[in-house]
């Protein structure tokens, strides 16, 4: 996980997970609409996942 991805996930979380697939982007987008902090947390968890 690069520092640019972390900064991007703090500023606009759905854009940080754009290469992880449509489902991840949709989940992070919905969480960001509900509240900024849940979107940031979800984006950081998805980016920190070593499986993909």
TrEMBL record:
<keyword id="KW-0472">Membrane</keyword>
<keyword id="KW-1133">Transmembrane helix</keyword>
<feature type="transmembrane region" description="Helical">
    <location>
        <begin position="26"/>
        <end position="47"/>
    </location>
</feature>
<comment type="similarity">
    <text>Belongs to the UPF0057 (PMP3) family.</text>
</comment>
<protein>
    <submittedName>
        <fullName>Proteolipid membrane potential modulator</fullName>
    </submittedName>
</protein>
<keyword id="KW-0812">Transmembrane</keyword>
<dbReference type="GO" id="GO:0016020">
    <property type="term" value="C:membrane"/>
</dbReference>
<dbReference type="InterPro" id="IPR000612">
    <property type="entry name" value="PMP3"/>
</dbReference>
<dbReference type="Pfam" id="PF01679">
    <property type="entry name" value="Pmp3"/>
</dbReference>
């Amino acid at each position: 996980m690069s520092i640019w991805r972390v900064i991007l996930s703090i500023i606009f979380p759905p854009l940080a997970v754009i290469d992880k697939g449509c489902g991840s982007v949709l989940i992070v987008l919905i969480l960001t609409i509900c509240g900024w902090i849940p979107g940031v947390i979800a984006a950081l968890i998805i980016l920190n996942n070593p499986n993909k």
